[in-house]
Write a structure and sequence with these properties.
single chain, Helix Hairpins, 5-stranded mixed sheet, 12 strands, 54% helix
Length: 457
């Protein structure tokens, strides 16, 4: 595999703390360089202006003396002068000026033609001796052209600038080190919770159980919100794992009985020759157990889908149509049992998920027909943006010990698991109610049992 090249790719492969420190260091370097450059420019401008003023005043006094033909006046400390003719010969010079012309041939020609010449001799860095700033002007004296050169030493000015540069370099270096250290400590402190989160996630990946990130409760920054988000993700993962384990345990426990019965029926049928009637009876028994397996599988899958997503799709549904569709499959069952099944639904609409609510209502009716007696009555009405569905029968009601666990999976009023039903009907009803943001309630009335769904619509 070819690795990306270039500064950006190299920078992207560095640890986060290193990248942050480098970013702080580079940014501070640019800021400090700009600030130091501004300070240096302002100070140098002020010193140059002072030097220029001294040089201009000295030049003016020299020009007057040459025009008047008097002795050359003394200048500022460390200054000197020369008076040249148009050929570059030194006519007059101060003691420090010497007899060697201070101007080059080109500068002398420019000054002779009336231009002001200004030049620095020597450099600031590296340090050179006898650094000067000189200025030359043309002066006419007694009908003759003369070039007057005034020069002042830059030693104090250059020394001040070198000292300034040293102080700026020292201050900038110390500031950069301090900023980098503070940036490093800040980055480490900011990323320390991330490292704790990574350690906890690694422990969870290695098989740890019930792990949660230690998130401060008195903060609300990006890292804290990340911790809360990760904790919610861990809660969902744990809930998903619990549901998976429960699903597997429930499925294995509940499927064992019908599968054992199927195996027993087949073994008995194969043990000795059977008549056509006996084989037909065996096939009917096998068919009943297969249907029981199908119902059990559908109920388990429905519960798992509701529990894993918790998502419903609401849509306006005519309440009377929903109730009629849910009750219709059970009318023949009630007729065969000599029972009466009635319904009373308001002529209105409800904003619910009919895909889930319809089978939930059917489960309630089926339970009432299986375990109750007398007339089964279903009422449905909307009051104050809430839908209330209630199924009642005229049987003996629920056993008191069964009421607290009525909505548990595989809870049955009968102790035997071979009784009719899977024990998942009321659990499915409760899951549908919870998915709608509502509630389910079981109770005994004076004349039988009642199950009520209360849903927002």
């Amino acid at each position: 595999m070819t690795l990306p090249r270039g500064p950006r790719a190299w920078f992207g492969r560095l640890p986060v703390v290193t990248r942050l420190v480098l970013a702080v260091a580079v940014t501070m370097s640019l800021v400090l360089t700009g600030a130091a450059g501004l300070v240096y420019w302002r100070v140098r401008t002020a010193l140059d202006q002072q030097l220029h003023d001294d040089l201009a005043a000295y030049q003016h006094s020299l020009d007057r003396a040459v025009r008047a033909g008097t002795a050359l006046p003394p200048g500022p400390s460390g200054s000197f002068c020369q008076v040249l003719d148009v050929r570059g010969h030194v006519l007059t010079s101060s003691d420090a000026g010497g007899r060697r012309p201070l101007l080059t041939a080109a500068e002398l020609d420019s000054a002779t033609h009336g231009h002001r010449v200004r030049r620095d001799v020597g450099s600031l860095l590296p340090i050179t001796p006898d650094t000067l700033r000189l200025q030359a002007e043309r002066v006419t004296a007694g009908g003759k052209t003369r070039v007057v050169v005034a020069a002042v030493r830059r030693g104090h000015r250059d020394e001040a600038l070198r000292e300034l540069l040293a102080q700026l370099a020292l201050a900038s270096g110390l500031t950069l080190i301090a900023a980098s250290y503070v940036g490093y400590r800040t980055a480490r402190a900011a990323l320390r919770p991330v490292e704790r989160y990574r350690t906890a996630a690694a422990a969870l990946a290695d098989g740890g159980q019930d792990l949660r990130l230690d998130v401060p409760a008195d903060r609300d920054d990006e890292i804290t919100r990340l911790g809360h988000t990760l904790n919610r993700m861990l809660d969902r993962l744990e809930a998903s794992a619990v549901r998976e384990r429960q699903f597997l345990a429930d499925a294995s426990h509940e499927l064992r009985t019908p599968l054992s019965l199927l195996r027993a029926e087949v073994d008995v049928a194969l043990h000795r020759p059977r008549s056509a009637g006996e084989l037909t009876e065996t096939l009917r028994s096998v068919d009943a157990e297969v249907q029981r397996l199908i119902d059990l599988s559908n109920a388990l899958l429905g519960l798992e889908e509701l529990g894993s997503t918790g998502h419903i799709t609401r849509a306006p549904v005519r309440l009377a149509d929903l109730v009629e569709t849910a009750v219709a499959p059970h009318l023949r069952t009630a007729e065969r049992a000599g029972r009466t099944l009635t319904s009373d639904a308001a002529d209105t609409t409800a904003d619910v998920d009919a895909r889930w609510l319809r089978p939930a209502v059917g489960n309630l009716v089926d339970n009432a027909l299986r375990h109750g007696h007398g007339t089964v009555h279903l009422t449905a009405a909307v009051r104050g943006a809430r839908l209330r569905l209630r199924v009642t029968d005229e049987g003996p009601g629920f056993q008191p010990a069964f009421l607290p666990r009525a909505f548990d999976r595989f809870a049955r009023a009968e102790a035997s698991r071979t009784s009719a039903g899977s024990g998942l009907g009321l659990a499915f009803v409760h899951a549908v109610a919870a998915a709608h943001g509502g509630s389910a309630r079981v109770e005994n009335t004076g004349s039988g049992a009642a199950v009520t769904l209360d849903l927002p619509c």
